[in-house]
From TrEMBL:
Residues 298-320, 348-359 have a biased composition (Pro residues). Residues 280-293 have a biased composition (Gly residues). This is Uncharacterized protein. Residues 261-359 are annotated as: Disordered.
Amino acid sequence: MRRKTAKESPGFFHIKMMWSLWILLGTVLSVDGYVVPDLHKRLSHGHQLKIYLPKSAVKLEFTPAAEPLKTYLYWDRGSRATRGKVSGTGTDRSWYLDKVTYKDQGTYVQRDYWNKEISSLKVAVTTRREYTKCVVGEELHISLEGIDQADATLSFSGANANVTLVHDGAVVAQDLPDYWNRVKTLSTKISIQNVNTSDVGYYTLKDTRDRVVAIVRMELTDKHENEAGNPLMALLLLLGIPASICFCCRKRIFKNKSPDTTAIQLDNPETLHPPPGYNMPGGGVSPGPGVPGGYPQVYPPPNPGMPGQPQWTGPPPQPGYAPVMYSAPSGKEEIKIENMSPADPLLAHPPPQVPPTHL
């Protein structure tokens, strides 16, 4: 009887299984204790925020920077987003905000089916800065960039003035002579009409918490920059030049081929003659349609036994008009002629009788 080795003993298998369990447990604990690094993104006020959602993500949570103890559920798989929009499906799914504001500053966390964190993004919103040029008499537009009209406050700082034009969505510049009936507030922008030299300066837009949303610098110009330097116009020119060259070459090729066609037509030996006039006695017989030409015209001699036909004295025929042809006798008359005896005279009228001469 063979003796069992140490590797074949039951205790060895138990130890091996224990080691396998410890390795598996350590792997699970290391994965569970893995901390997802925070991603950071800085966006100007009013820009779009877009977050990619992998297949494993089932929810998106948001913790505001101003309220770190609160968490809001923005999106849950199988339901509509409470804020923002979700586009795409599968591996091409994303959640986005059209225009971020200071309220959107904070941390965005994605979680999987077991409520484990799989992604973390910290978003910071900064002041939007803009530089624009206007021609005297034009209209200056300042976008609200996502804030409500009732929360907007606009002030102006120039060389000779430092005034508030809009406060909490209401126009307060009606008492200023330079801005009377020139400032208009809309749902998405504030407009200053008929700009002039006194409007050159800085326009500062703030929200209800006195946070600077945008700073717009405006200057005057004689005319706007020429649009000829636009890349789109340059692309159109590049596409138009080859097309013009091809058109010219094609036109020249057809022009060179046209004399050969004329020469072939002139080589035709067939000569066309106009039909004879109606006032000509014994007019010729023209070939009818479909009869090949090229044969000399034959005109029958006048019959001395038949009375003369009346001549046409009307207006000349129109171009392309086919005259009425002289038709031969009917078949019945031909049969009658064939049945005539040789003794019958050939002419329709007998020759005149000559009286005998008496000597």
